[in-house]
Write a structure and sequence with these properties.
0% strand, 18 helices, globular, single chain, mainly alpha
């Protein structure tokens, strides 16, 4: 229940910050936002090493670096993540070193997500709840490197919207140096800047057609690619079939995402504002891509599933746009409340019903 409790505390603090904002009490508003940042960072950063399926692997990596004071070869994680571990090991005592690695990584990802949310979200509370439950925060307890890397993609998307290609490229490169899977995000700059709905419709059709071809000839394509490019952890992930461990929360996420993708695509035909229509089509394309990768990964190996989160984070900005596309305030309030409740229910599913990230029971780092 502690994960739901933290989510509700964060939501209430955000509502207080918005209330003060409305009364032009900027200082109080900023205090609440800083509190939200601190709570999220400390809750994840001060967790015990037993919290999170992969946390122990990250600890082994840090211990290896700390012993030899060089980048680890035992755990071949990406350069920037290892460099961060190396700098912390060089500057701080063993007792707090790895905990600082967790805190710094969490601070980076929370700041990136919250900063972009503040800049572009049309419903900041909903974006914050989606970030917490579905789009990164809780999954960072397990998939820390990838979630930090994706937070840099979120920042990159902001510069894509601003048509600043060099800053966009810089953040994609930083993301790649935290987790290699993020490199497939590189061509998306052109999608963010495509303002022609016909081209976007063609892109949808082309991607779905390509998906069908890949499904039919997947093994042949993988064999060809693997001869040209050496894919590390290839055998580890392709031999593991994701459908063997499907659970209720995962099925809800997949089915719900597919339904949402179709519903949002159809909704764009009724959006009169050209800019809003294009933005929804752009973000929904990435959700569509996530759904296709999800389905492919279930039957063709877990390697494909590694790429789903690279695009799935758009949901935290896409759903607020969907809500905002309705003119009726009653519909907007109803959808916001419904989605807010859905995020809390999903948090309960992935922590209390099926602990998919291995984060229960929650313990602080100094608790044995």
């Amino acid at each position: 229940m502690i994960y739901i409790l933290i989510q509700l505390i964060v939501a209430n603090l955000f509502l207080l910050s918005e209330k003060d904002n409305n009364f032009t009490k900027k200082k109080n508003s900023n205090v609440y936002k800083i509190l939200i940042f601190e709570i999220l960072v400390l809750f994840a950063g001060l967790r015990n090493y037993s919290v999170g399926l992969d946390t122990n692997n990250y600890l082994k990596n840090y211990t290896d670096i700390d012993k030899r004071l060089t980048l680890s070869t035992t755990h071949p994680f990406e350069f920037l993540y290892q460099l961060l571990n190396f700098v912390v090991a060089l500057c701080f005592d063993d007792a707090i070193g790895f905990q600082l690695v967790l805190i710094i990584n969490t601070a980076i990802l929370v700041f990136n997500y919250l900063y972009v949310t503040d800049k572009i979200s049309s419903n900041k509370l909903l974006s914050l709840m989606l970030f917490y439950s579905l789009s990164g925060y809780l999954s960072s307890f397990n998939q820390l490197r990838q979630v930090v890397a994706i937070s840099f993609l979120v920042m990159a998307s902001l510069f894509a919207y601003k048509k600043q290609p060099f800053k966009y490229l810089l953040f994609v490169i930083i993301a790649f140096l935290f987790h290699k899977s993020t490199i497939i995000f590189l061509p998306t700059y052109f999608i963010f800047n495509c303002n022609n709905k016909k081209i976007l419709y063609i892109l949808y059709g082309f991607t779905i057609s390509l998906f069908v071809i890949v499904c039919c000839y997947f093994d042949n394509i993988v064999n060809i690619v693997n001869k040209v490019v050496t894919i590390d952890y290839f055998n580890k992930y392709t031999n593991y079939k994701s459908y063997e461990s499907l659970n209720v929360s995962t099925m809800i996420k997949i089915v719900g995402s597919v339904i949402l993708c179709i519903a949002i695509f159809l909704r764009t035909f009724f959006v009169s504002n050209h800019k809003d229509k294009i933005s929804m089509l752009q973000l929904n394309y990435f959700l569509c891509l996530s759904c296709l990768l999800y389905v492919l990964g279930i039957f063709k190996g877990n390697l494909i599933m590694r790429f789903v989160p690279v695009f799935y984070w758009v949901l935290m900005f896409l759903l607020p746009q969907l809500v905002n596309s309705f003119k009726s305030e009653k519909i907007k309030h109803f959808l916001t409340i419904s989605m807010f409740i859905a995020t809390i229910v999903y948090t309960g599913l992935i922590t209390e019903i099926k602990d998919i990230y291995g984060i229960n029971p929650y313990k602080l780092y100094f608790v044995g």
